[in-house]
Amino acid sequence: QVQLVESGGGLAQPGGSLRLSCAVSRMVLNLNFLAWYRQAPGKQREMVAQINRGGATSYEDSVKDRFTISRDVAKNTLYLQMNNLKPEDTAIYYCNMNGFTGANFESFWGQGTQVTVSS
User: Fold this and answer.
1) What whole-number distance in Å separates Cα of residue 2 and Cα of residue 108?
2) Cβ atoms 78, 36 nearer than 8 A
3) pLDDT (tens digit per residue) in 76-111
4) What is the per-residue DSSP string for 42-91?
5) Mean pLDDT in the chain?
6) What is the pLDDT of residues 28-47, one digit of tens each?
7) Helix (H) or strand (E) holding 5
8) Which end of the chain, N or C, is less packed with Cβ atoms under 10 Å?
């Protein structure tokens, strides 16, 4: 059974930094991408950053130049380095993995980790 476990959330001051990690128990055979999403209270879940199997990355406009997504293939771990945090970054952050095993599309989510940015 595939499990994604996030860690690294917490309280940060505006302008501060946090690094999120997502440990993946097993990768899907044909990975589409790994991604970080977030959901703030009263808002829809949105994609923050993604990295595809080739290593190409993309970011939501509000986090460009502040957040960096990366992966350690050997450790099956996804990271999100968040710098210059703003109060509007406050949300629950989720990691996601999706791809194909044979003809079956699969999408897996972690349980989420709370990030709060406040002075």
Assistant:
1) 7
2) yes
3) 999 999 999 999 999 999 999 999 888 899 999 999
4) TS--EEEEEEETT--EEE-GGGTTTEEEEEETTTTEEEEEE-S--GGG-E
5) 95
6) 888 889 999 999 999 999 99
7) strand 4-7
8) N
Q: At a CB cut-off of 8 Å and minimum separation 6, what does 88 contact? A: 40, 62, 117
Displacement of CA 27 from its chain's centroid (Å): 15
Q: Which of 119, 52, 45 is nearest to 87 (CA)?
A: 119
Task: Look at residue 52 in the predicted model and tell me its pLDDT.
Answer: 94
User: What Cα–Cα distance (Å) separates residue 59 from each residue in 37, 49, 91?
Assistant: 11, 4, 16
Q: What share of the chain in percent tops pLDDT 70?
A: 100
Number of residues that this document lists for the chain:
119
Question: Which residues on neighbouring strands pair with residue 67, listed in sequence order?
Answer: 82
> DSSP class of residue 118?
-
Strand-pair partners of 4: 24
**Parallel, antiparallel, or unpaired for β 113-117 and 10-12?**
parallel
- Exposed / middle / buried, residue 63 (Cβ in 10 Å: 0-12, 13-18, 19+): buried
